[in-house]
Amino acid sequence: MPRQEDAGRLAERLAHLRRVCAHADLIVGELLARYTRKALARDDMLDALVLAVTGCLSGGALRQVPAEGDADRTGLRRTISFYKPEERPLAAGRQESI
Predict the structure, then answer these.
(1) What's the Cα-to-Cα distance from 63 to each of 12, 36, 49, 52, 81, rounded to whole Å?
(2) Taking the domains of the chain in order of start, what are their residue ranges?
(3) Contact 20/96 with Cβ under 8 angstroms?
(4) Does the pLDDT value for residue 46 go beyond 60?
(5) CA separation for the pair 82, 4 (Å, rounded)
(6) What residues have CB less than 8 Å from 77, skipping those under 6 apart?
(7) Which backbone phi and psi does 74 adopt, to 5 degrees?
(8) What's the confidence (pLDDT) of residue 4?
(9) Which of 59, 61, 49 lies closest to 14, judged by CA?
(10) What residues have CB less than 8 Å from 1, skipping those under 6 apart?
(11) Is the pLDDT of residue 87 over 80?
(12) How far is the C-alpha of 78 from the C-alpha of 70, rounded, in Å?
């Protein structure tokens, strides 16, 4: 994939993050200044930020699929956690932000 398409996708993802995380640009800028591209891929950085924001916005109300989950050979549970925002009411017309 050409670099320009990568940059466009990253910019789009960051724009979505800005809607719910007021400090998204500050966090991304700090990470880019602190780590080389070789040490921290930009898409991985945004993935981690999305997960952190999701966890914060969930207020601890993450759901898991499957509900019980199985375990890997070390005993670590394997589940996918997600946040279902309709379970936390927001004021009409407002977006939640962290």
Answers:
(1) 26, 34, 19, 15, 5
(2) 3-87
(3) yes
(4) yes
(5) 31
(6) 69, 70, 71
(7) -95, -5
(8) 59
(9) 49
(10) none
(11) no
(12) 6
